[in-house]
Each structure stands twice: as structure tokens, then as C-alpha cells.
Amino acid sequence: MLLDVLDVTKTYRGGVRANDGISLGVDAGEVFGLLGPNGAGKTTLVHQVLGQLVPDSGTIEIEGSDVVADPALARQLCSFQPQAAAPVEGLSPRQAIDIVGRIRGGARDDVRREAVRLLDALDMTSIADRPVPLSGGLARLTGFCMAAVVPGRLVILDEPTNDVDPLRRRALWQLIRDLADGGAAVLLVTHNVLEAERCVDRLAIIGDGRLLATGTPAALKSGLGAPLRLECTLESPEPPDLPTWLTVVGMNGRRLIAHVQLSDVNETMAWATAAQDARVLAEFALTPASLEDVYAAWIKPEGVAA
Amino acid sequence: MRLRTAGFARSVGLLFRWNALRLRQVSLMLMMFQVVLGIGVIFGFAFLVPHITPAVALFFTTGAPALVLIMLGINIVPQEVAQARINGRYLYVSSLPVPRLAPMLAEVLYWVLIQLPGTVVTLLLAVLRFHIHLHISLLVIPAVTLVSLTTAALGYALAVTAPPPVTSQLASVLGIAVMLFSPINFPLSRLPQWLQDVHHVLPIAYMADLIRGTLTGHYDSARTTAFAVLGAWCVGALALSSRAVSRRG
Questions:
Q1: pLDDT for residue A302
Q2: Structural domain of A199
Q3: Which of A232, A261, A298, B177 has the fewest CB neighbours in a 10 Å radius?
Q4: In total, how many domains does chain A have?
Q5: pTM for the full predicted model
Q6: How many angstroms separate the Cα of A215 from the Cα of each of A160, A189, A192, A220?
Q7: In sequence order, what are the beta bridge partners of A286?
Q8: Closest chain B residue by Cα to residue A131
Q9: Looking at the domain assignment, is residue A10 inside a domain?
Q10: Chain B within 8 Å of A31 (Cβ-Cβ)?
């Protein structure tokens, strides 16, 4: 693996255990999603990989080198988009990308050319020479370009799609894919589960500082034990009598979510249609289980492991 | 893409460019402030001290650039770092492959250049107003370098260690302490004996003396001693700063 995190534990002063025995690996050419609710310990893990925080115990290696002992090496090998908007007030996107690309060791012409390509792909050419807004999607996209212009062996992106409009978001996912196809390992921190499902090769779910599950989206979904989900809107807040083959996994007001086995599809459709006719259900949808179901199975709303 | 890690000078240059671009809309105004401050020193102090003897004029004139350089390090640089820590720029830059002291040097370089026109104007006005004779030695370059680096390295170490709101308060307090209790605009002999003794160890008196000496040729202490003491302080301050920026949570 290009990035090897082994049994990393980090406790902040005050006793908050942000990471608790986390192990994971990211390979070159791979987009690896790090999913979890706010406060799960994702950003703490990222700052340890970057050499800005020291783990209490455990090891972090990039291409076989111990980056806990050598934080300067971590800074060379990683390029990073922070969770907050890029701190580039007063600079234009092109200037910000140019400076960071050259600091990261890129030759002047290479950096310029790559900046043009990135700005063009993200439809930012027309605003490339105006000062970057202090927040919002354009600031975040500028931050992405700063991480991508001369990518590290490991590219760490912390919530790259926040605040980004849908079209540019699509282009951004493509550029993230390109980074991996170009040979980098991409560590993508996000809580946007639905989008991650389309982009990541593998992922880890962390909650309350612990690694809860890791694998490909397909493997994690098959681990759910139910390939389909039934989502119903009830006519009344009272839960109806449900057939025994449905496994209820969520109930929120009049919204009910249940997992369904493939063998029970026909019975489920028949029951739901009848229930709708009988005005028990206002509407329903039977869809393939998504990564969100996996996520919901592991993470309870307050962010505590299931 | 061809990859080579930016060297020390290149890193400082690129971070300096970042500063200059970031502040380009206010740079001219900041320079003007320094010029106005210089004019204030020459004409304003005349109200404070009605009988300006040539000795007093010499202290005012040469104390002004020394004070500006010292303030730059213990006031402006820490405030800038505190701001950078709040808005995330500090953490972001610390994730880039640059030598640890490069951001500090880029900061000092920018602010020294900002105050340069003000210093020149102050000195020119002093020559016209007080008929002071300047004998500017080339040693002014190492003197300015040592003064600004030492104070900025100390200010930087403070600002990356203390919480940002504490840094802002402390920077103001230090500024006032230096202005009132340090022999920059007046001779050391005017202070009580114990404070004189303190200033034989602290770098501030040597800083003022070196700036005055390299501009006029008149040194209070032995020039070599002043350079040696300040050189030692500078090495210590850079070591402290380097340690402070390398500290990890």
C-alpha cells in the first residue's frame, strides 16, 4: 500500500479520544473514501498523516517511510485540500495555484499549463484572474486545484465538493478520478455518502474515533444482508402491521425504511401495493440498497457506533 | 511533471510573493503610513521636547528606524501570524513542503520593504530639519538584517505558541514596554541603574545602537560587542522560532 496507517490512536488534551486504533491502507491509483459524521475523527487522522499531529501510538507510513518520525517527508509526499476554504484572500485562483504548484516543486511552465487545464475543466477560466471569494464553491475549487496542480504521491481532499454547484461537482469528481488514474493515491474525506459511492474504489466508515467498516462499496452493501430497500411514506404516524420478511432499519415521522431480500420482492410489491390501496401507505419505492444504507447501519444520528 | 522540492531561497521568494499579492491593495497605504509616521517623529517630537539639542535630535532621528524595525518584529509579525492562525493560512502553509523558517523570513522581508520608504523619508527630513550629518556605513545592511530577524523570530515564536487573542494583547504590551522603557529614543544613562543592567543583557539597546552607529558613525558601545551580542541573540531567536514552528500537537 502507498499509505499504511496501523493501529493509530490519538487522544487530545482533555481526554477526547479522536482516533482509537485505526488501521487502513490506500494504494496508488485508488480513490479511498473516509466517511463518518462530524466529529468522528476524520480530520484528526488526516493531520496525523500530514505530520501536523503526532499519534499517541501506532504507525503511519507513506511508500514505506515513517512519516510520524519525518514530517518534512510527509509534506513532500502529500498534497492537501483543507476542510476550510483555501486561505488565499487577495489572490486570484491562477496566482494561488501557481504559487503552490511552484512551492511543490513544479517547473514554471508545467505549473501554468496544468493550472489552465484544471481551471478550464472546472469552468473557472472567466474568473481565474479575479480575487478568489473568501468562501463558497469557487474558494473550495481553488483549494482543490492547489492540491491537484502538482499532486503528491498521496492527495488528501477534505470535503472537496462542499458548496460546489452540480455541474462543476461532476467535473470535480472526474478530476479526482484522473488524479488516481495518474498514479496518485487519493484519500477523500467526506460525509457525502451518495456521491462517494460513485467515485470511491474503497472506503472506510469511522465513527466515534473507531474504524467501523472498510471495503469496496459493493462488499459493504453485500454485508448488509439485504440488496434492496423499501422506503415508505405512511398515511398516519402509527406504524402499520408489517410483514415478517421486512427488516425495519429506520423510522422517522411518517417515513419508514426497511431492507428486503431478493427472494421477497414479489411479496413486498404485492403487500405495498395493497397497503397503498388501503391508504396505509401514501407512497413507496423499492430500490437497490445504497452506500447510505451501509452508512446508516453503522452510524446512528448522534454519531455513535451502532 | 518535473519535480524538485523548492529550495530555501525559492520558498522564501514564493511565500514573499504570496504576501505581496495578498496585501497588494494595502501595500501602498502601509508604506504611506510609515512615511507619515516618519514625518510625525521629526516634527511631532518637537512639541513633546521643546528644546531639541543636537544630541536629542540624533536620538530621535536614528531611534525612529530602530523602533520601526523592532515594532515590526514584536508587534506586526505576531499580529499577522495570529491572524493567519485564525483564518487557516498558517496551518495550510505548514502543510506545504517549505523549510520551517521560510514563512517567517518571507514575512520579515515583506514588512522590512514596506517600512523602507518611511525610514528613508525620516532620515532625509532629519537631515533638513536638524542638520544631522549621516555617515551611512555598509554595515547598516547586516545591522538591519540582525535587528529585524531577531525581533521577528522572537515575535514569530510567541505567535505560534500562544493562543491568537493572547498574542494580540501581548504584542501591544510589548510594543509599549519597548517604546517607554528601552533606550531607543533616549540614552541608556537616563534609565535607573537596574534597568540599565537589564539592557546590558537584552538585545534592544544594542539594536538601537547598531542602527544609530551604522547610520551616523556614533556608537554608544563597542561596535564589535554590539554585533556579537546581537548575533548571539539572533541565533538563539532563530533556534527558538524553529523549535516553536516544529512543535506538533
A1: 44
A2: 3-216
A3: B177
A4: 2
A5: 0.87
A6: 22, 15, 17, 6
A7: A230
A8: B22
A9: yes
A10: no
